[in-house]
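FIELD: query
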Amino acid sequence: MNNDFPRIITLLRKERGLSQKQAALELGISQALLSHYEKGIRECGLDFVIHIADYYNVSCDYLLGRTPDRAGATIRLDDIPDPPDSVPEDDSKSNNLASLNKKLILNSVNIIYEILAKTGSKGLTAEISSYLMVSVYKMLRVVYSSNPKNPQAMFSVMPEIYSGLACALQSVIETSVNQISSGKAADGFRGINPSSAPELSPDIISKIYPELAPSLFNLIQKTEEKIKKLI
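FIELD: result
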């Protein structure tokens, strides 16, 4: 089996609010065996993959981490809605891969801000906004400076030091974000009330943001594929 299967079947069981004992009984296996499957200790056969896919009403490809879509659909550029207030692209000039990634990022960021609005935390919104702004700033400088003829006077921070300082700033901001989200004050902002944080899961996100959720799930999948290569 693969590393995704144990994680996903555990997630699906917990989403339904099922105990391991109850799920095992309904699946017709022992609790010990289901526990081994969920921990990745033992591999199951193809028949069980199909059985548990039917049980949770998802595709086998989803269970195996081959697609973030529960029905097994493969996302295409045309399937992703344009982000709010975006400018339509000239298809004759645009790069499909760039267009796809742009939509994945913008739609995912839109979900983040929707969730932030539900927390009612000005501090969390401000700090996460700062983090994203630094990310855009760093990448803007990279593409801007790819042509050495472009005047660096557009920026007030010297080329030799901006990257390291920007990364340091992001680390500081991320620390503040983590503190605020855990209920602690940081950078002059109050921590959030844990009860104000919305309850979330893949299923809930899909229901609240049916058009944007595929972008977020694909962004997660693409990012984690890159992270796993570092392990």
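FIELD: remark
The mean pLDDT is 89.
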